[in-house]
Amino acid sequence: MTRKIFDEVLNNYKTLIGKRYSKAALTKVWDGVSRFIRKKLQHGKGVTIKNLGTFTFSEWKTFVGNKNIETKHPAFVISEKLVQFYNLRSRIPYTTGRTPICMLNHATIACSIGEDRQMVEACVTEVTEALARLLSQDQDVEIPFPNIGNLYVRNKQVTMNFHQDILKTTGDRFDSSNKESKFAREINFEKPRHTSSPLPEENITTNNQVETQACEQNES
Fold first, then answer.
1. How far, in Å, CA of 192 to CA of 175, rounded?
2. pLDDT value at position 2?
3. Which residues are paired to 55 by β-bridges?
4. Quick one: the chain helix, strand, coil %, rounded to 5?
């Protein structure tokens, strides 16, 4: 049976949800988290959630005739720490390392939902800790990301199912041999299989680097 992550959060006797923060607050924060990620993806940027993983882009090239077709789709890379500690399996997407990646910004999310940063950080931590508990018990789990997709861990296999809407609004196919050409969406081909490519640490922006301008960046 697949466990819902929010049910596990509430089942923890140490949880702050239901004590300091309401279940509605948890839902509000997670909606804000998803909007933050979605907005970054729509701007071609990735987001890392500590102790969970990274939303980024899978990018590859395919040669069709005399055209060099570049394709980009959103992807999720589970935390390597979780993979090793809980012996998880995951298909790691090929990444070029060109996608800028930032940490999930609690201050920006707090500004966007009209709540304090501490509540956002606490709720996100509750979710990641609940995930760790379920994985330690070899439980299957589902984590919803509203308007993005659903993350599943089933039989230790990690799968991120993106909604069609986010795939359409963030995925590109274009002829890189001709920068003036239109998107080549009519060309059908399969993605080649690649070995994993690590996410370069130099492309990751930390919370401390951006939180001072969190409210100003909220609309960017």
1. 17
2. 79
3. 47, 76
4. 40, 30, 35
For 13, the 3-state DSSP assignment is coil
Q: How far apart are CA 43 and CA 188, in angstroms?
A: 25
Task: Please report the pLDDT score of residue 108 as a whole number.
Answer: 97
Q: Are strands 53-64 and 67-78 parallel, antiparallel or unpaired?
A: antiparallel
Alpha-carbon distance 164 to 161, whole Å? 9
Phi, psi dihedrals of residue 6, rounded to the nearest 5° = -70, -30
Contact 88, 78 (CB under 8 A): yes
pTM comes to: 0.78
Q: Are 57 and 199 in contact (CB under 8 A)?
A: no
Q: Taking Cα atoms as reference points, which of 4, 29, 15 lies closest to residue 119?
A: 29
Residues in Cβ contact with 130 at an 8 Å cutoff, skipping those fewer than 6 apart: 5, 8, 9, 12
Residue 62 pairs in a beta bridge with: 69
Q: What is the pLDDT of residue 200?
A: 45
Q: Which residue has the tokens 């979710």?
A: 127
Q: How far is CA 132 from CA 50, 125, 139, in A?
A: 12, 11, 10
What are the CA-CA distances from residue 111 to residues 95, 116, 118, 192, 215 (Å)?
Answer: 31, 8, 12, 41, 6
Look at the alpha carbons of 128, 134, 137, 138 in this order and tell me if their dihedral is positive or negative: negative
The 2-4 sheet, strands edge to edge: 2-4, 140-145, 149-154, 157-162, 89-90
* Strands 157-162, 172-175: pairing kind: unpaired
